[in-house]
Amino acid sequence: MIGPEVQKRISSLRFALLSPDEVRKMSAVKVTTADTYDEDGFPLDRGLMDLHMGVIEPGLRCKTCNGKVDECPGHFGHIELAMPVIHVGFVKEIKDILEATCNSCGRIKLKDEELEIYRPVLEKSILNGEESLEALAMSKKIIDEAAQRSVCPHCGAEQYKITLDKPTTFRENGRKLSPKEIRERFERIPDKDLIFLGLNPNTARPEWMILTVLPVPPVNVRPTITLETGERSEDDLTHKLVDIIRINQRLRDSKDSGAPQLIIEDLWELLQYHITTYFDNQTSGLPPARHRSGRPLKTIVQRLKGKEGRFRSNLSGKRVNFSARTVISPEPFLSINEVGIPEEAARELTVPIPVTPFNIEKLREIVRRGPNPKGEKYLPGANYVIKQNEKGLKQRIMIMEKNAEDVANKLEVGWIVERQMMDGDVVLFNRQPSLHRMSMMAHRVRVMKNRTFRFNLAVCPPYNADFDGDEMNLHVLQSEEAKAEARILMAVQEHIRSPRFGGPIIGGVHDHITGLFLLTYKNPLFTKEQVLHILSYVNYDSLPKPVIVDGKEYYRGKDIFSLILPKDLNMEYKAKICDGTGCKECVFDKCPYDAYVMIKNGQLLTGTIDEKSIGAFKGVLLDRISRDYDSVTAAKFIDNFTRLSVGVISYMGFTTGIDDTDIPEETKIQVDEILNDAIESTKAYIDAYQKGILQSLPGKSPEETLEDNIMRVLSDAQKKAGEIASKHLGMENPSVIMARSGARASMLNLSQVAANIGQQAVRGRRINRGYIGRTLPHFKKGELGAYAHGYVRSSYKKGLTPLEYFFHAMGGREGLVDTAVRTSRSGYMQRRLINALEDLKVTENDGLVIDTTDNIIQFAYGEDIIDPTRSKQGKAVDYDAVFSKALGERFFLQIRGGK
Amino acid sequence: MKKVNIMEHELVPEHYLLSEEEEKELLDKLQVTKDSLPKIKRSDPAIKVLEKIYGPIKPGRVIKIVRKSQTSGKFIAYRVVVEE
Ligand SMILES: [Mg+2]
Ligand SMILES: [Zn+2]
Ligand SMILES: [Zn+2]
Ligand SMILES: [Zn+2]
């Protein structure tokens, strides 16, 4: 263990090449036997598991350091290669150096006076370790220039073209250069020239890029695995090393016995293959080396590279205990702050509770229940007790049914009980991809029957979750600090508004919006019985005042909704259903469409509650409540309106189907006429274009003008057809309710189902690809008409013709490809950005942004020191809220007055 | 070719050379040493322009930069001059 007193800051890192001598020096054994264990299972001397390279079996001792399994860090061995072999990792460098240096004298093929001007900068950079981009560019330039010379300026020798046959074969004028020859050439390069090639002669000689000695990694790096059957299985690296030693041996034997050159070259080539794949088994141009089972071997590069590699998987990513993962499903009766957890998971996951004089009896009872308490109702048991003896040594006692009673009685203050989860425990809940901080929030546990995690639907947007099979992760917090931090900083209710856009991200979705629309639109009347049903899920003080209609008592929808509003709330705004087309001039609270929301003293007086009020992302009512009241009130409001709206929608019933989009026969004829006219109109444009009389739009060619006109005519027609069809789809129509209230889908979707799908596009233009001069062989070459370029006249309900279907698929596919490409690319960008920013922080006193070494990154966070979460859509001050509070009624009258 | 004064371009923020007193005041206010300030190369075109006015600017001097800001209208940053 290294104590804190030897902490040091790393000032620089330098990479160098290992020389053959260094490899031998650090080696504990020369490995010569291409095998691992003898018949008795004992490591063979000079074999790949030689005890000099470390021990992995308990009971044995390392022959180098005499350490036992946990003590010996492992030691390298080495293999003496019969012939030199190229190191794949340096192929590019080897090619550069071969090209830049003379084939006979080894000097860089530039005159000394050309070279020496670069020396000062390069020496500073390479010898003093001040790596600079300038030096990098310089040696690149030197190499490029030297490679151009066909005669050596030093010795006058003629130079030839060097080519590389991927992956490791170099040729000079087509003749193969053996690694041995290359090595000999590199040995001739004088030390003083190395710096121009970007090498530091003190730490790297180019010939070291050609291997003559191969280090064998310690056995700890490639341990033998013993299967349950008792069978031993070697690591992939060991397999590869066996191959290398075997071929190396054969090559040496053949060489010594004077075998024909052809055989030697074949073996040499094979040795090169094995060593190349030992480093990288995905070298392009080489078939990957395979295990007996046919699985490609995982060699050194594969261990390190990529998502599953050492870096991303083991070093930047860690696996943890006290976590669970399962499918998620909705539970509208949970608070947004809660999460439902299956009993099975709750029994497995524990919280450590220190025993104190105050809780010892309670804990005894829990321990007594054991790990599997019986009974219909879930009661937490305990899985372990951590006992602390006099010397402070900790001992874990597993609780089983047998010893539960015993351990409970022996329980002492100072011990720790690992109690199973129970209602109220704090957990972190997470859904990948974790793109923003709301992807991981703290919830309170509710232990439930069945095997899914459950949560309130209002929390779907921040996690971007749905229930088509999504799974989520859960982490049980262990320390008091972690629990406190999570409750204060990470609780769901503290994340109702997002720093992404300064508005609510937790809020109503789908049926929440439909439900409250049904409750409030045009203020429907409910009987007392109905109201009691609807409100049975909601916390409220008392029923609102009933209204008398025809001598009977009724309750109005808006009054029912007002029950869950804070009593001092005053707001006015236009609802989502106000699309601005209905009325010439807004008449505010007199709106005939009930689209102007007016709330006075917590009473909803006019207007409809829809997406604009309570929707995630768009709900201004929700936004106001979360800003002006504390987070507990905001959370309660969300809990209440989700329950209320679920109550309404399940009591009233709500359903949608294809017949929502039925339109009368004469409307269909009208739509047909509009579309016919549009087609005629496109024909007229095409005609004009072909006669050369089409008036070009400014800055456009005649072709572009034609395209623009056709697209415009067709989209106008689609809009008009949609409007006509929509006339017959009124506010009583469920699909329209969903579209207009913002619960799901749009009026465009409906008009595409009912009337006309419209032009399909790829790359933002009419479809123009496929065959030469035409999109499909069904058309004439050069045909310009709507149908020949992806116009879909049919509606979804009517169905598409085969040609329309094909074009529709083309347009649809573009969307899919786009999202696929976008997610991978933006994911990568996000990763880079987060890696760069993750350890910056904002100082408490003056809002500076600093890094871990106190360097100033920004002199004021965001240049305005505003927490975007508390901003109003990014703006520092919500003027409307300030004015309405200061001026009260007068402010609203002023907006209504248009000023 | 016509020589352009880059400082007149609307995308180039205003650069000012701080006096020694102003430097001290700034560092006192921020409670930092000079080497934790962001850097600006002596070869930066903006420094070249300032040098036309003040003569050679030695590494270690602090430059005040006033830029337009989307969030706060105007934003002030400081950079310390470094050799390369
Ligand atoms: Mg899903
Ligand atoms: Zn050892
Ligand atoms: Zn030469
Ligand atoms: Zn209106």
Continuous helix count of chain A:
29
- Radius of gyration of chain B (CA) equals 13 Å
Task: Average the pLDDT over all residues of chain A and give the rounded result.
Answer: 91
Amino-to-carboxy terminus distance of chain A: 72 Å
Integer average pLDDT of chain B? 91
The largest sheet of chain B has its strands arranged as: 1-3-4-2
Spatial strand order of the main sheet of chain A: 9-15-14-17-8-16
- What about the largest sheet of chain A? 6 strands, mixed
Helix/strand-derived category of chain A reads: alpha+beta
- Beta-strand fraction estimate of chain B: 25-35%
Strand segment tally of chain B: 4
Strand content of chain A: 5-15%
Overall form of chain B: globular
CATH class of the domain at 323-503 in chain A: Mainly Beta
Whole-number count of domains of chain B: 1
Word description of this protein:
The complex is a heterodimer of chains A (899) and B (84). Chain A is 37% helix and 15% strand. Chain A has 899 residues and is of the alpha+beta class. Among the domains of chain A are: 124 residues, no CATH class; 181 residues, Beta Barrel (Barwin-like endoglucanases); 139 residues, Enzyme I, Chain A, domain 2 (Orthogonal Bundle), CATH 1.10.274.100; 152 residues, Topoisomerase I, Chain A, domain 4. The radius of gyration of chain A is 38 Å and the shape is globular. In chain A, a hairpin with a 5-residue loop joins strand 6 and strand 7. In chain A, the strands form eleven sheets. A six-stranded mixed β-sheet of chain A has the order 9-15-14-17-8-16. Chain A has 29 helices and 32 strands. With 84 residues, chain B is of the alpha+beta class. Chain B has a single domain, classed as Eukaryotic RPB6 RNA polymerase subunit (Alpha-Beta Complex). In chain B, strands 1-3-4-2 form a four-stranded mixed β-sheet, covered by helices on one side. In chain B, strand 3 and strand 4 form a beta hairpin. The longest helix of chain B has 11 residues. Chain B is globular, with a radius of gyration of 13 Å. The model of chain B has no long low-confidence stretch (mean pLDDT 91). The interface between A and B is medium-sized, with 17 and 13 residues.
